[in-house]
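Ticket opened by: R.M.
Priority: normal
Category: complex prediction / small molecule

The reporter submitted a protein together with flavin mononucleotide and asked that the result be attached to this ticket for the collaborator who will pick it up next week. Submitted input follows.
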Amino acid sequence: MNPNRLLVLYAHAAPHLSRVNRRLADCARLSEGVFLHDLYETYPDFYIDVAREQALVAQAEVLVFLHPLQWYGMPALMKEWVDCVLTESWACGSAGNTGSGGAGSGALHGKRFWLVASTGSGADDYAVGARHGRPFADFLAPFEQTAALCGMQWLPPHILHAAHAVDAATLDAHVARFGELLQGLAAPSPLNLGHSAGVDNGI
Ligand SMILES: Cc1cc2nc3c(=O)[nH]c(=O)nc-3n(C[C@H](O)[C@H](O)[C@H](O)COP(=O)(O)O)c2cc1C
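Result attached by the on-call engineer:
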């Protein structure tokens, strides 16, 4: 099995304070066929080795973003990674030129993208008229369209809302479901690739 088949990019600015994402990162770290890449540990100075990152991504079949939602988006270093690594000439390119992964070749085309994120607010806070004013799915649009522009297949996100408030059993179930989905994606059979449509809340 390709040990880097699944590349999990983990971004948490204060992992020692994490209740949810640190558990998920530990789960990914122990999963076969998964490379857990801790961005804040690797690049505390925010200077990203773009060539190294592009080589890692090129080897992967599934790209996973694992992080808490921050101001309706990704943490700063995750965004820096996207800005620096997903250069237009490398990451986009034409759908037909998927062979080498070189410049302009559509290096991400055909790979799958999976967002695994947590929110502090509860699911009910994400609605018209509620605290955050919009359905949660609206905030996924930038992620989904980034994947689309790069020719990546969008997988149903695995989201845990109310990260600080859920009880231990719910958190355990969320982590366990993540592990199952991860193993399904890591398995070579295409039969194991799809999980159900829509956001997977993992509980
Ligand atoms: C700077 C910052 C911004 C945040 N923005 C949001 C937000 O936009 N929406 C939300 O629901 N929670 C937000 N949160 C809460 C985090 O998403 C929450 O603390 C995290 O998902 C918990 O995961 P952890 O236990 O791994 O830290 C924010 C937290 C921080 C520190």
